[in-house]
Amino acid sequence: MVYNPREIEKKWQKYWDENGIFEPSNDFSKEKKYILSMFPYPSGKIHMGHVRNYSIGDAIARNYRKLGFNVLHPIGWDSFGMPAENAAIKNKTHPKKWTYENIDYMRNELNSLGLSFAKTREFATSDPLYTKHEQNLFIQMYNKGLVYQKSSKLNWCDTCQTVLANEQVEDGKCWRCDNLVQQREMPGYYLKITAYAQALLDDMKELKNGWPSQVLSMQENWIGRSEGLEFDFTLDEDSQEKLNHKFEKYTVFTTRPDTIYGVTYSALAPEHPIINHLIEHNLLDPSSVEKIKQMRQVGARDRAMAQKEGLALGINVIHPLTGKKIPVWVANFVLIEYGGGAVMAVPAHDERDFEFASKYGLSITQSISVNTKEFDGNCAICDYGVTINSGVFTGLSSSQAKEQIIAHFEKYGKGKKVINYKLRDWGISRQRYWGAPIPMIHCPNCGLVPEAIENLPVALPEDVVIDGEGNPLVKHPTWKHTICPTCKTQAIRETDTMDTFFQSSWYFLRYTTDASLWQESAFDRASSDYWMSVDQYVGGIEHAILHLLYARFFTKVLRDLGYTNASEPFENLLTQGMVLKDGSKMSKSKGNTVDPDSIIKQFGADTARLFILFAAPPAKELEWNDSAVEGAFRFIKRLADRSNNVSKVHTLPQIDHTKLPDTSKYARKKVYEALKKSQEVFTNGYAFNTLIAACMEALNALGVQEDKAVWSEGYFILLNILEPIIPHICWELSDSLFDLKNFTKIQIQEEVFDEAVVVLAVTINGKKRAEISVAKDASKEQIFAYAKEECAKWLVDQTLIKEIFVPNKLVNLVVK
User: Could you count the other beta carbons within 10 Å of the beta carbon of residue 419?
Assistant: First the structure.
């Protein structure tokens, strides 16, 4: 047949849509597979990263459908967010209009790829109905004590005019606009993710076989569980008097109580209450105050990377075991969010403490001896060892000292063993318009109260001015004025909107429910229990901490609220690599982008899909290659052209393998090798490149034989294998040749691998010189003799040193 991709692809896309081919069944007795690729932000046009992400997910979904599974493979739009407001300012349009026009355009682009999405379950997170249910979930979380409001130092992006979570600050800059982030004291709403810190850690064991170890490691480090000793440092009398007796002591936490005899100073975070008191009561000189203020302007991540800075506060605490006075400093490396914002410093055994002590000339005392390292005062020794200079605890191993020192503190009421986490509660307040309004009301009588459920959704006003200056919801003349649902008096609506990660933390649960039930609830319990967890999730590793951690947290919360039986959202995770061009990530600013629309227009969607899945394994980076795209097109054209050799059948032909010539036997073997490879690839790693290579070899092998039945069998199987990858041409050929009867599970015919003759490569000093065909049961002596006969001209005047035989593969003759 003549290959016309534009005509074929439009034909089958229309057929799939009109017949609802890819819609999931509501028969929950069937075995299911839920395949999901991370939904896109409607930025305007798809890019090659989208093509890769959705081609991978689509191949997996299509394969499971062929095998008879009930498959849910949905699509939607992560449609709230700052870019819409920026576009509104730039283009003088409304964020809603910009967003939904982009959705329409990108939907058509994705449709042109022939992706097998369940289109009846499509939604955008900015849809009022989605917001209604999301606000209800927020209120349920608030009522359960998982949402609270507090004022604290927050990351503020002046360009985006909004607060950022710690996870959204990268190298001191906003993750969206790349501008420097400031620290501001602001009120905000927080989700108590810390209440689930241990559960998030414990349940990682359920994911270790299905998630990349790198992602699990990143989450484990971000949660940051540590066990140690919590105790109080008591201020000496002079220091208490200096602080007007407002403070008697403060609490510190250490994971290394075995080093406590090496403490030579203590350090406080710049935001610690004692520091505030010193500043407010003019107990520090102006230059010190200015230095502390500068420290406060730097975010937590950047402080960790910065040079160690600090200053003495002129106060002291008493060592709880030795009774000695210890000077107290303020230091930029101490974080108010962790361990109470105060630390005991052991410069001999902590690199950070050593750097600080060395810089400011503070004393250094060794309290741990390590056999393999001698302490010379030039660097810290952080290894575990044996205690020295540690009073009654001298001579103990570090583990023994930890245990006994904690026991001592607990016995005498000086401290206790505690577990700490680096993970902080998730601040979700954003001072912007295009987001889901937080459904809370500030009442002068009742205080902070949630909106009544019957009044949801709290919808955004559309008559707003988007000019980039402040929050349009605050400036709107009427929207924020409302009635308290409790006492019915005039009240003020909350003008903050939710972090967009709130929407993407539960969208996968919404998909589980038939659209006919969407009005009633966020998602149906029976549907969720059937479809969850997602069997295969596909997306970028850049979401390892933010989205993936939040989604795990939400799933556990919604389980505890009775919405679902699932404890984990995603059973298996595939993190696809980036698409590169000229060695760099594709970027408009670099001018190295490739427009998917132009590739589809020139070569067809099947070519785009084939190239993107053939160029590299899914988890690896993919380098764009124009000639490889053309090669993919030529392969599909060859597949179409050679279909003229195939006779129309409805089942696999019955073939007597023993009566076939060697070329036909070899062709059958390569076809079934491809079928085996397909089963392997779809159950272990999705190395589509190896599967496609096997199909190419099989097609080549078919081309050098003439048996019509073998041709028909070959295409019956190859079109089945390739359908998840290049669906349009496979449906076209399968429809005309097999009435689509080949799109089912196919059994491997083991007979094709039983060969009377084996083809072996013959190499001399590792270089291939010939191929020989020998009887399967030939002896080594016979094989070596035949190999030497075939390669006689390369053995002239050579001394044979060694003969090597690798069964079923090769003979290597070593000469000199």
Answer: 12
